[in-house]
Amino acid sequence: MPPTGKLSYEERKRGEVALSEFAEYADKQQAHRSGQVAPSDSRYSTASVSRDLEDHAELDILDQLGLSDAPHAAKLKELLLGTGDAVEDSLQVLAGTLQTRIDEGHGETIFDLGLEDGGESMGFDLDQWKTALQRLREAAETITAHCRVLLTYNVGGPEESPVTHGRVHGAWGKVLVRHHPDTIEEMAELRIAVVGNVDAGKSTTLGVLVKGGLDDGRGRARINLFRHKHEIESGRTSSVGLEIMGFDSRGEIVSNSQGRKLSWEEIGKRSAKVISFSDLAGHERYLRTTVFGMLSSSPNYCLLMVAANNGLIGMSKEHLGIALALNVPVMVIVTKIDICPPNILQETLSQLTKILKSPGAHKIPIFVKNMEETINTATQFVSQRICPIFQVSNVTGENLDLVRTFLNILPHRGQYDPDGAFEFLINDTFSVPHVGTVVAGVVKSGVIHAGDSVIVGPDSLGQFTTTVIKSIERKRIPVNACFAGQSGSFALKRVRRKEVRKGMVVLKKMDAPPKVYREFVAEVLILSHATTIKPKYQAMLHVGAVSQTCSVIDIDRPFIRTGDRALVAFRFVQRPEFLAPGDRVLFREGKTKGLGIVKSIDYDPTKPLSANAKEGASTSAPTIPHD
Ligand SMILES: Nc1nc2c(ncn2[C@@H]2O[C@H](COP(=O)(O)OP(=O)(O)OP(=O)(O)O)[C@@H](O)[C@H]2O)c(=O)[nH]1
Predict the structure, then answer these.
(1) Per-residue pLDDT averaged across 110-139, rounded?
(2) How much is the ipTM here?
(3) b (16+ CB within 10 A) / e for 139-169
(4) Atom from ligand 1 closest to the CA of residue 237
(5) DSSP of 231-257, one letter per residue?
(6) CA atoms within 13 Å, Cβ hemisphere of 394
(7) Cα–Cα distance between 283 and 289 in angstroms, integer?
(8) Which ligand 1 atom lies nearest to the CA of residue 207?
């Protein structure tokens, strides 16, 4: 169905049901915590919650019901207070519990100190809270982890929640426990693609978040980020800029802890977790760079910036669409609230809510206004259904602390296969004096070590060149290995710069040459098109870091137009590429835009497209988001 901008009754109903259930669930949660509803209320049962809601609420509901591991609850209190039979061992047992949670959280966990696993209060008085916190710290030390108190209730002090709701009596709090990496290889990494319209304040917000200090409303903070001289002059970001923000194992921001600008190397060495931001261009002229940046940097999350006084205009809807097409969780920062009249701000928030709730986006907007909501939303953000929204000012600094904490505890998203065959996607190439050719990118699966023999390609003939990884760097720091999900750069032995290009892959050396593909079948959704698309039609196609002109060679119907979902066979015009079923594709040509998923890489023209797609579909391709 063509996107008319209007919602059908069914679509509206679906959106409303999901949201009303979410609101109901939130109310119940609140009521339960304040003791108004018995935890055994049958309406808490997951069966009564729609499937839409389950992905982000189910675990929490189980937690609320105390069904997760209730039998151990009493023991946990003893462990924390050291009141069990064997006091010495109990610290070790506590450390073991922490270690399990840290492993599950890929290096960190948020511990509800003073609450049972089921969410009920342990009834700590202030002294007991202090004892429990001390023991938690000691247990963490034994496994080289550190604690940071994020928020407390009924404790007092700097982290005390200003929101008094008395839902749980007794002292308790949320404590971040983070592993201190022994080597740089263990450093956690998240990649965030930053998008939004021109002047939304992307560069400024990143500058303020990363470097500290405040903006003057006239572009002071953004100067730090620019790479090219012409950008400083015009004030526009044209390149895919990069900025990193480090957090240490104690949960402190590394970037501005010394009050001076630290190099990437210094940040990396002191950090337990590093967030890299790709600040993508906002101007329509640079849409190509933005699309490339979004696809090639394999972001874990997308951050959409919206100026409060402008709302979602111009390119920002386009960017949101791309993030949705790539299935990347989206968070929103509304900037410039200092200069925006309340009625305009309200209009912007209503517009944002409407777009996010529309069937195309199918998100639940969550307006994050205090530390409690920040922590709760961050821990649930692995679900792509929710979309946290922050309202900040880079001039007064309002709510920037919430964004910093949110980023600090943003969870790891495990969409990479650590045990698979090694595959590295090249998204940039360099020629470095005294080093030679260097390729940068992201490890899609497996692991690589310096000194390993690898192949890089495909070249214009579809062939791969054998080489050796001379050295590896992560965030400009030399490392011995690079793992799935991490970005890195490799110096390659005896390879000339012109032999490598963006979109190539690096694989482990193997007996048979890897297969490359010139033709493939994708399931596509046409987002906008002026007329109709028929065979022989050509468009620029993006898959990961690959950008190449493709022509349509077959369609499962005579022609397709806006809103259609169809199976299409494509052929790369210049050269074959290394592809896999499940890869997401985007194509565009003028006003035409489409997105899709590679279904089959062995296109057989003698068979109908549906049979082709079926053969290749055994690898579970993600579903295309709703139009
Ligand atoms: N008053 C006020 N001004 C802000 C705020 N955030 C950014 N600005 C100003 O808004 C202008 C645009 O900010 P930029 O960071 O350059 O915007 P951008 O989105 O990065 O723009 P491009 O890089 O061109 O895509 C600058 O003059 C900033 O000083 C804010 O919260 N309040």
Answers:
(1) 90
(2) 0.96
(3) bbeebebbbbbbbbbbbeeebbbeeeeebbe
(4) 23
(5) HHHH----S-EEEEEEE-TTS-BSTTT
(6) 30
(7) 10
(8) 15
Both tokens of residue 336?
A: 């410039």
Mean confidence (pLDDT) of the chain: 78
CA end-to-end span of the chain: 8
> For 146-185, how does the pLDDT look when each residue is reduced to its tens digit (9 = 90+)?
999 999 999 988 888 887 655 668 899 999 999 998 888 8
- At 232 the pLDDT is 40
What length does the chain have? 627
Which residue bears the tokens 């996010």?
Answer: 356
What domains are there in the chain, each with its CATH number?
76-179 (no CATH), 184-409 (3.40.50.300), 423-508 (2.40.30.10), 516-614 (2.40.30.10)
In 3-state terms, what secondary structure has residue 549?
A: strand
Cα(394) to centroid of ligand 1, in Å?
Answer: 9
Q: Is the peptide bond before 458 cis (omega within 30 degrees of 0)?
A: yes
Ligand 1 lined by 215 (C-beta under 6 Å): yes
Residues 102-122 pLDDT 10s: 988 889 999 999 988 777 888
Going from the C-alpha of 554 to that of each of 139, 400, 532, 579, the distances in angstroms are 62, 51, 14, 19
For a mutational test of ligand 1's pocket, the pick from 195, 198, 199, i.e. the residue with the most ligand atoms closer than 8 A to its C-beta, is 199
Q: Would strands 273-279 and 241-247 be described as parallel, antiparallel, or unpaired?
A: antiparallel
Tokens representing residue 608 in the block: 């109908």
347-398 residue pLDDT tens: 999 999 999 998 878 899 999 999 999 998 998 887 778 999 999 999 999 9
Distance from Cα 225 to the centre of ligand 1, integer Å = 12
DSSP of 261-314, one letter per residue? PPPHHHHHHH-SEEEEEEE---SGGGHHHHHHHHHHT--SEEEEEEETTT-S-T
What atom in ligand 1 is closest to the CA of residue 216? Answer: 29
Sequence letter at residue 413: R
Structure tokens at 569: 């066979």
The four Cα atoms 193, 199, 203, 206 give a dihedral, to 10 degrees, of -70
